[in-house]
Amino acid sequence: MTAIIKSRKKFLVYFFSLAVPIIIQNFMAASLNLIDNIMVGRLGDVSIAGVGLGNQVFFVLQLFFIGISTGGGLFTAQFLGKNDRDGIKKVLGFTLIVGISVSTLYFLIVSRMPGFVIALFTGETAVIKEGSAYLGTVAWSYPVTAFNLCVAAVLRSVKRVRQPMTANIAGIITNTIGNYLLIFGHAGLPALGVRGAAIATIMARLVESGILVYFLAHKRHTLPRDIRVMFSFKLTLVKRFFNLTSLMIIKDVIWGLGVTFYMAIYGRMGTEIVASFNIVQAVRQLSFIMFQGYAAACMIIISNLLGASRFKRATRDVGRVMKITLVTAVVSGLLLILARPLFLLPYAVSEAVKTIVYNLLFIYGFLSIMQVYNMVIIMGVLRSGGDVRFTLFMDLTAVYAIGLPLGFVAWKFLGLNIYWVFILINLQELYKLFIVIARLHSKKWQRNLVHDLP
Fold first, then answer.
1. Three-state DSSP class for 346?
2. Which of 76, 271, 365, 432 is the most buried (most CB within 10 A)?
3. Residue-wise burial string across 186-217, b where 16 or more C-beta atoms lie within 10 A, e elsewhere
């Protein structure tokens, strides 16, 4: 019994030594968006709605980033379990090529027609004007963001979690100062409104990338100094990476498009609804921070074990992670409900928007328990073994057979209010809960992906 207790304590120390820096990093990343929301929120409902829709456009690209960086992190962690350092370097080089290429193409498309893109979500002329001003500028940050996310994912997977955290802290400081100076026009600078928020975001991303480049170039123990090794990957790695990540990206994009369709439904319900959901999404990001850290730490630990073919140990450690997740999820959901008035304090929005946000957060407090539990299983456990086909099937059915049809019918044909539309869309989380738990216990996700790679 004493040995079991010591083993549990040792695991908890190891788990949180990985999770806490990632949580801090995620908090900094979410704070960057939250600060944008709060400061832009001082400009009124129309501005915050426009920025919210501009960020929704980025959300689709972000899903691609998540697929590439998660794939890179997964292969890196399994190569680490195999003790293959050159394999890690090649993964970094390959993910950078793919991530930066796709983000540059997305930037070129979005930056040339921001008004058209925003108009896909809303017919409000004022919102389209503000949204296009923000989107046309912030799109310049997309290639830099791709670089940052790919490097950070690989660093975390080799257990260098503090370097990305340091970069994020510098980024959030830069963004905060930039927002203060450029949105409202302080220190003799012009008041640029939402365009100022976009410029501050670009500055923050550049600062982050500069710090990450420094770590790569000056820390021999971290990752490569020899650029040639990074780009000497073989076709075998490329094929296996794309076999896994292409499905992962398709899965994330399909899910993300569904979420984007949800925003289109909300957008047709009026500017106040869009502004409300922008605030709710900011709070949702904050509530997810701890569990994103749990999922990332879980994937690192379990991928290492699977790369070493230690399947029994992986099963035991997954059980420990999910117990931690369940307890934390319940506490987090209750705290979110109790803290609702605090989330509204920074916003200078209408009373109608405040009322909608207050009520939506009450509903979300309960839904969040299921959402974060599902997230840790999907992103922390199933992805550690590359179980992407199952998650692709799950998201297709959850979004397009449950969430989207129920939400559309509730809004278009039944004329239900925003609260019922929100609840019906999120019934998909209950469906997910049952099938991911069943998949977890099946152990079909336990696969060594790198055992035969040179």
1. coil
2. 76
3. eeeeeebbbbbbbbbbbbbbbbbbebbeebbe
For tokens 């539309």, the residue is 421
| Residue with the two structure tokens 């959030």 | 172
Query: Which two structure tokens, joined as six digits, stand for 252?
Result: 């994330």
Residue with structure tokens 């959850």? 398
**Between the CA of residue 168 and those of 92, 93, 233, what are the distances in Å?**
19, 22, 29
CA nearest neighbour of 307 among 77, 91, 78, 70 = 78
Q: Quick one: pLDDT at residue 222?
A: 46
pTM of the full structure = 0.72
- Is the CB of residue 146 less than 8 Å from the CB of residue 99? yes
Q: What is the distance between the alpha carbons of residues 135 and 114, in angstroms, rounded to a whole number?
A: 6
Tell me, rounded to whole angstroms, the distance of Cα 40 from its chain centroid: 21
d(CA 295, CA 299): 6
pLDDT tens for residues 276-326?
887 888 788 888 889 988 998 998 899 888 888 889 999 999 999 999 999
Non-local (6+) Cβ contacts of 397 within 8 A are 431
- Specify the residue for token string 């059980």: 319
Alpha-carbon gap, residue 399 to 251, rounded angstroms: 11
Nearest by Cα to 209 from 164, 159, 158, 160: 164
Helix (H, G, I), strand (E, B) or coil at 226: coil
User: pLDDT confidence of 453, banded at 50, 70, 90?
Assistant: low
Could you report the per-residue pLDDT of 87-139, keeping only the tens digit for each? 777 878 888 888 899 899 989 988 888 888 888 877 778 888 888 888 888 88
Interior CA angle at 29 toward 358 and 324, to 5°?
Answer: 75
At 310 the three-state DSSP class reads: coil
Alpha-carbon distance of 207 to 116, in angstroms, equals: 31
